[in-house]
Amino acid sequence: MTAYVNPGLSSLKIDGRRRRRNGRSLRNAAIVFITVLWVLPVLWIMATAFKPPSEAAGLALWFKPTLSNLFASFGVPYLLGSRLLNSILVTAGTLAIAIPVSTAAAYAFSRFRFPGGSAAPLVLLATQFLPPVIIVIPLFVVFRNLGMLDTRLALVIANLSFVVPYATWMIKGFFDGLPVDMEEAAQIDGASRLMALWSVVVPVAVPGIATAAIFSFVVSWNEFFYALVLTRDHAVTLPVALMSARSEQGDAWEIMATMGLFIIAPMLVISRFVQRYFVAGLVSGAVR
Amino acid sequence: MAAVRLVSVEKRWGDVVGVARQSLEIADGEFMVFLGPSGCGKTTTMRMVAGLEEPSGGEIWIGDRDVTDALPKDRDVAMVFQNYGLYPHLTVGDNIGYPLRIRGHSRSERKTQVLEVARKVELEHLLERRPRDLSGGQRQRVALARAIVRRPQVFLMDEPLSNLDAKLRVSMRAEIRRLQAELRITTIYVTHDQIEAMTLADRIVVMKGGVIQQVGTPAEVYGRPANLFVAGFVGSPPMNLMPAVVQEGRLRVAGQSVGAVPVPAAEGVDLVLGIRPEDLVIVPPDEADLRGQVYMFELTGDAVLVTIDVGTSRICVRGDRHLRHGIGDAIGLRLDPQHCHFFDGQTQKRLQLD
Amino acid sequence: MPPARSSGSPSAPAAAEDEALPVKDRYLKYALLAPALLVCAATLFYPLLQSLVYSTQDWNLGRSPAPEGFAGLANYAALLRDPDFLGSAKVTLLFTLPSVTLTIVVAMAMALLLADNGRLQVNARTLLVIPFAMSPALIGISWRFMLNPEFGVVDAVVRRFLPGLSPVPILSDPVLAMAALIAVDVWHWAPYFMLTFIGALAALPRDTVDAAQVDGAGKVRIFFEIMLPQLWPVLTIAILLKTIFSLKMLDQVVTMTAGGPGVATDTLPHMVYTTAFRFYDIGYASAMAWLLAVVMMGLAMLYSRFVMGSSK
Question: What DSSP assignment string belongs to C163-189?
């Protein structure tokens, strides 16, 4: 073996290093490009909310931001304030009922055996695969007969139809991962099963319940279809309010953008949690 | 077949040094073992030779080529992984033949070569199976076969035997050695098991914290450890290490005066005396160089291991398997000056005495 | 850690457990389940059953507040002969196939790009999830705005750079409207599947990729010959899931295209909606909904079999 270095092969040296460096910067550029491409529409909508109506259509990146759209939206005929309130109440109502109910059922499914065995949890999951159109018709008929159309309660009931099964499934999965030791220790120490559940299990289960709560929040807040069918004036929620910005004169885009801002705002606030909990909670299942 | 040279190679991540800047030469056809505890940098060094990690500095040469920035596929090396790295969706035959397929060999060529190599590792009857149907030892042989089939210039092996059970490890060890001797391919073998290192290596590189502690043949590393770390790491049970100092012209070990051993250093210098369990002889206390009490007594079948409290030190002696002593018995030890290793208490380095 | 108990082990039936539990706990067991069962029964099972009943009836809400007569399977038979229904089925397929394919491909590409955990990648991932958390209705309206030939930003961009092509009538052209629907759907869903794939890529044994590199394979080859075959189970599940979601999709159709132009984007869910709430033909719409549900349930069963199968 000689120590002579073949000059042709030493170009191997430069190639490898340069190829890797270029690859890395190309990759980073691609990441930035894709992120911008994905997020730009959202930014555009948010910006439009602050543009004066005359400029809403333009490509201008610089504009004088105005709050006039905000004021207009809260007024007649858009009534953003009342729509916002409806969304808040419906979502809060859904969560207030769904979380305790689902947690209890999830615990029962996890710690006890029921007739039907392992089929039951799968049925819970399967409910997410139903097209919402199928149950909206009977709901509409029943609410109509009961005079409950256009009420917030009707919306809460409709939301529960898909939130409760899926939240139960999610929380059950979480309980399955918790060892029974703690509860058994508490029971040996003298607690009844119910007391053990409340004092020992629930505090530890907070992450799993939080996951389900965030999921329930996101889907309730964004829910559109049931609200579209079941409401008309009083109980209209934010997503449906978007449609009301249409008129014969044309669509009031800047009003829609303002409403969109309110719809999206909670998502941005909890965005860090959304990625961790909402998306993670969907790993094995479905979402509306 | 080629020599491997690491010239001032280092690897750091920010402030963390994975491999300190150092150089190493591995001769053509040599079986070089990198030995050390987890995190000592041995795997990182090997991955740099493979091209799976980029060195932060320095050069890597394989034969007469500077491969520092070359991609793995251009280096003509083959690697055997700890978890075998087999392709689960391919049959054993396709696994072994994969490197050939990439290089454009025809199907018939591949078949012949794969069969030949499979025979070498005694797998010719398993070529149609999938990796998941094989035992650990069989999977390891598939990985070996895949590495051999290309006749690379360098073999790299990353703790290939650590996932096998003890008995299998012994037989696979022999097989690897035999293959390497037959094929004469330069081999870099990484392990934390010092018995593997001792039995397989032409030379051993002992590493700790990214720094090479010693490079030498198994005999050198075992018989003349360069510092306290190597002394304590190689050998099982490990070498006994006792504090020593020269006082009033005589050597004092663990508080006891030892006349039989010549004075190795100046008065008052902190020393460590190292002596292997098999180099101590159990004698009656009045004939002994060191006196102590039996702390523990273990029968290993081929010998007894007696743990003895000498002063503040606790040392281990390997004795004849018929020996019996009770716990707490007074006992004596004789040292052979030829087998005493002295280390500087501050620098931890070996004192050169001859 | 001892394995946690999960329900449904076939070994001991529920009745046997009931006997083994103290009385108080037996009540607790059913008491905990009761509220959820009640809610599901009222909001889900009962409406489902009712819907099935409606589908066998002749009923137009505009004509009468109650069902007008038993029709048996006549609705179903009529559906299968109805050219509008078949057309809508075709439209649904026309939407589903491309949206599933493109979503999966784009998601995989994004996953490969964003798999590392560098600061850039992690931040990008957080931002990319935002479209996914948006209300689909808002997405539909927003894109309807942006694609508007007079006011939309898309047309403004075209006007600036390719003035000859403007105005671009996307939503009034049947083909372009469908393309827009698909594109928006991909935009909405790709980030979610990207995260799933990133998880799957991280779980791939590193050794197989390293071994392939040392064996001599280039990046492209490694992806198609080594990584993809190992990702196949995850991909199958993702494809099934996305198919179900695509079949179910409705909000964007209502807000962005209203099924148009004409019937170019009138997917099955949308047709059920218009049949029930514009034409008030409850019986017919219910039958349609059940046909769609049966197909989706079939896919759901496939999905659950795959998920059960691939968990070891």
Answer: GGG-S---TTSHHHHHHHHHHHHHHHH
